[in-house]
Design a protein that fits this description.
192 residues; mainly alpha; 8 helices
Length: 192
Amino acid sequence: MLKTLGTFLAADSNFLWTVLIFAALMGLFWVIYTKVPRLKPYRGQLLVITFLTLFTLLLFLCTFSFRVKGIMKYTTAATMPRTWCALMAPVIVLVFVSILNGTCEPDKPFRRWQLSLGIAALVFASVFLFEYIGYYLSSAIFLVVMMALMRERKALRLILVPVCWCLFTYFVFDKLLFITLPAGSLFAGLGI
């Protein structure tokens, strides 16, 4: 049953359904957190931890659709995502308990919705651009724009942080883990 559910959730044709179910669940939890007076002051924190919980569960379920080769006994493609899920579970429980016990502070008023929506749009644009300009260039542009939005004005930092991040991810993924990140169709056409 878990393999069937994981295959359904991971299928490209069901991506829209997965997003709609995810959004409906988040909406349901928003209503619950708004209607319960004890939870309302912590609604923002609860929504973040609920999002992480649902995302962790989605990732865990999708790992059941990963193919396993006969030679792989101990480590498969599902090992790292499941490890992440296993590490997230106690963190999520601890955060929920601290919120329900009242040991953390209630949410502070938030008045920067335009910035939040802009950042979300920037994240989606960055991921969308992976296919066309590649991971490294897209990430570098994303970091420069994000740092500018966060009011970083020092030119040296605006250059060094994206360059160092791209070098770090290149060495970790390409050289250490032998995972090639998307180069982008623009550079594939140029033969780079």
